Amino acid sequence: MDKINCFKNNLMDFNDIEEGALINLLARSFGVPLENGVLNFPAEIGSGYIRRLKINHKMQVFIRNFELKKERRVIRENIENDKNLIIIAFHNIFKTDHYKENNTSGLLTSKINLPSALISSVSLDREIILPAGMKTSSIVIAIYSDYLKELLNSQENSNLIQTIVSGEQSFLFEEIVSPEMQELAAKIVNANVPDQLQGLYFRAKAELLIYLLLVELLKRNETSLASINAADVKIMYRVRDKILQNINEPPRLEDLVLFSGMSKSKLQNLFKQVFGDSIYNYYQSFRMRQAADMIREERISVSQVGYIMGFSNLSHFSRMFEKHIGFKPKRYAQLSK
């Protein structure tokens, strides 16, 4: 594992968004130049690329599509200088069969493969881990809070939106990637746009991605939001991983309380704040999204999917599917053809 520290007195400050600090730092570490904003990984390091799209002085987009042979960690220093910077990331968003390796059921079982969309304050993004031997496929948008506030152009923001744009407290909110987000991501990655129109095109698509995420977040009804720290975030993701280790077994709250080291109330409140649902509902929603993916992508019959998901009663499976997906499974299968 290589560890890279970014200090203010170095030649480049990671927090200088105008210079695309991460991509520049990696380019120097690898000893390869950027070519038109693209870092192509040398074969001895891994494969793939990171592409930087400079939208304007308040927003940049990074497309990460690579696999490393050796884990690397980037430690961000002087984060307080960029406390108004917001990170919006869409992880594991490119469709891939990578998750099916050694998994005959085709089901996702961990956060490694979970397509997710999150928005967070930069203070919770101090350490970036680039894992080895795992496909990284992400679109990351770095945007300043004042610019996002200007885009929203509203005087009556919800408590959640106000938390995001105010810069007054640390936050992290995550959603499972929707099919619309995934389709839009594919358009961004595969776009062939004339040079003189790239700024216009990618700005529109990036703002649409942000819009799609905010639409999902605004479905939440939190009236109060607690400040969250990096240690809490790590615990939440460890709990989430444990829940999804075996989706055929519902989570036991008592076990998760012991596992997290938190009180029952703190665990439940923070989990819902970060992931937008209770622990049990999140688990069920994930199962049904997996079922929907199998119906849509693999053309498996509804009864087969219900059996794979561990349901002996297909009527129960149908009701649960409709609750979380919005359609009965047979209707969903017809719409997916």
Automatic annotation (TrEMBL):
GO terms for molecular function: DNA-binding transcription factor activity; sequence-specific DNA binding. The keyword Transcription applies. Residues 237-335 form the HTH araC/xylS-type domain. Keywords: DNA-binding, Transcription, Transcription regulation. Transmembrane segments: none annotated. It holds the Pfam family HTH_18. The keyword Protein biosynthesis does not apply. This is AraC family transcriptional regulator. The lineage of its organism: Bacteria, Pseudomonadati, Bacteroidota, Flavobacteriia, Flavobacteriales.
